[in-house]
């Protein structure tokens, strides 16, 4: 019970902080919009669906690395110590994850809207594609939250973040691309259940391993 | 002498598997022909790698619990040795693919995922080099090691089964079990696996002892 109230308060704190500065929100929105625009300028129109799909996931991958990594990397040492003094490590990690999931889902939906608008293309099975996109932002957020905590502790953030997260995220990315490709082709939904199931399993795995490991990480 | 029986066993098993692997009769298969013997050399590398990485994770867990430096060293050295076996597995696989698939690296899912799994451990070493202070380095890298291990398992054992691959045992291709109708190959294959796993453990224990001696000199 105490954990739940702590998580709730911490998530609220993250949201209030974000709303005051709107740094991540605006930064990543601008990043995604400008990348989509650059892609539009260089491609003009995307002839095939596979490129459309791949491009979208590449944009989302880098967007979420930038967005999620800020959670732990931006906090000063003092802020971290104060946080650990007030709440349990599990609550801190969970609150960051929940906040990141909410942020990434919102940003991904906005990005998807802009992306379909610019490239005048709508996948055959849009609800399924939306589900894939939401599942994607969920997995990116849970995994990158833990990796960014590790990178933040190690000291030199941005560079390490990329090196540590790419090999870990590749299996997720492959599943996501397959899932969204099925949605684009408008295949029957029962075909995609395997991929969606594995993605959920990976998420559960990532969250539970992170919860087990984070208490060791935050202790200095 | 009585404590080195397993080293003698390892050496004799590997020697036996190498000699018998080249000389014993194997089933005659189209395309595969004599390259089927690669089974005795390629697959044991992966088994040895998995065993060494598991040892690495085990000592990472122990390091988080105890904070003893020797546990950290064990974790690193077993990961180090495991990577060597992983690279050997990639090379033996690529050589075999060169003769049977026509190309050394054809971006087959199995090849890609194995390469990414090796990349995961390279990231682990980069992470270690990024932190200077010993206790902190041990702790952070142990955490990454434990976090990355389930992902490696997914990469090597779950994903290749979902995609079409040319690799034996995947995508409807017959695996080792179906070639081996008369169990002749098992006589060489199982000793080869055990031998290479033991050799891997041996290499790792030597690396660990060297490393801890070096550390004693520094302190």
Describe the structure.
- Chain B: The chain crosses the membrane at residues 40-61, 82-101, 113-131, 143-162, 187-207.
- The complex is a heterodimer of chains A (220) and B (219).
- With 220 residues, chain A is mainly α.
- The longest helix of chain A is centred in the middle third of the chain and has 31 residues, at 89-119.
- Chain A has helices at residues 2-21, 23-43, 49-73, 77-86, 89-119, 126-154, 157-185, 193-218.
- In chain A, α3 packs parallel to α6.
- Chain A has one domain (2-218).
- The model of chain A has no long low-confidence stretch (mean pLDDT 87).
- Chain B has helices spanning 5-23, 39-66, 69-100, 109-130, 134-162, 176-179, 184-218.
- In chain B, α4 runs antiparallel to α5 (134-162).
- Chain B has one domain (30-218).
- Chain B has seven helices and no strands.
- The A-B interface holds A 146-147, 150, 153-156, 160, 163-164, 166-168, 170-171, 174-175, 178, 194-195, 198, 202, 205-206, 209-210, 213, 216-217, 220 and B 64, 113, 116-117, 119-120, 123, 126-127, 130-131, 136, 139-140, 142-144, 146-148, 150-151, 154-155, 158-159, 162.
